[in-house]
Design goal:
The protein is mainly alpha-helical and about 180 residues long. It has helices at about 5-25, 50-80, 90-110, 125-140, 140-150, 155-175; strands at about 40, 40-45. Strands 1-2 form a two-stranded antiparallel sheet. Helix 1 runs antiparallel to helix 2 (about 50-80) and helix 2 (about 50-80) crosses helix 3. It has one domain. Strand 1 and strand 2 (about 40-45) form a beta hairpin. It is elongated. Helices cover about 70% and strands about 0% of the residues. It binds cytidine-5'-triphosphate and magnesium ion. Cytidine-5'-triphosphate binds near residues 24, 25, 54 and 116.
Length: about 180
């Protein structure tokens, strides 16, 4: 695979994991998952992790995966690359994994004394990717292997391109007034 095809394939495969966090920012709010509970004086997760944000984010990512399956046959020849399809377990594992990663990061932020909205460089940019990959690897091991490890450059591209995309989309959301912080 040439480098451009590797990036196209990686971006396509990760789309269902990219969308949930952004949808949660737009549609989230309401009752926090931790119900206000604290642990050792700090919130378990904080007010930034809500049921509505998690549910709408996961559903939006799953709906996108289903939509991508539908347009895949006509788009693959256009990009000159074999765009991967999303089976039922993957349709859920990618977006839900992204939300689990984001929530895990908030848990770690609270344990390390970071207030809601405080940056956690590195973790903020990769939490959702790592967990989306982890959950999809557990839900569909052979799909994970053929998509991200064959060739392994697809996984490398995901880990390099995602942080850059994350920084860019959050900066845009900040400028548009959708997010309180630019990260
Ligand atoms: N959001 C939500 N539910 C989620 C994730 C996000 O409702 N599972 C919404 C919240 O309104 C949140 C906003 O999206 O404030 C921005 O998300 P994020 O940056 O992940 O949360 P923060 O408020 O920065 O909190 P934290 O420090 O815990 O990341
Ligand atoms: Mg934040």
């Amino acid at each position: 695979m040439d480098p451009v095809a590797v990036i196209v394939v990686a971006f396509w495969a990760m789309l269902p994991a990219y969308v949930p966090n952004n949808v949660a920012v737009l549609a989230g709010g309401g009752r926090p998952i931790d119900g206000g509970r604290t642990w050792r004086g700090d919130r378990l997760l904080g007010d930034g992790k809500t049921w509505r944000g998690t549910a709408t984010g996961t559903l939006a990512g799953a709906a996108l995966a289903v939509a991508l399956n539908a347009v895949r046959p006509s788009l693959s020849p256009l990009f000159g690359a074999e765009l991967v399809g999303f089976s039922a377990p993957v349709v859920l594992a990618m977006p839900f994994g992204a939300m689990v990663g984001d929530t895990t990061a908030s848990f770690l932020k609270r344990r390390t004394g970071r207030e809601r909205g405080a940056p956690f460089p590195g973790v903020d940019q990769l939490d959702f990717v790592v967990f989306a990959l982890l959950l999809s690897a557990l839900a569909a091991p052979s799909w994970f292997g053929s998509t991200f490890l064959d060739p392994v450059w697809v996984l490398v591209a995901v880990l390099l391109v995602t942080p850059a995309l994350h920084v860019l989309t959050n900066a845009i959301a900040y400028v548009l007034g959708l997010k309180d912080e630019p990260y």
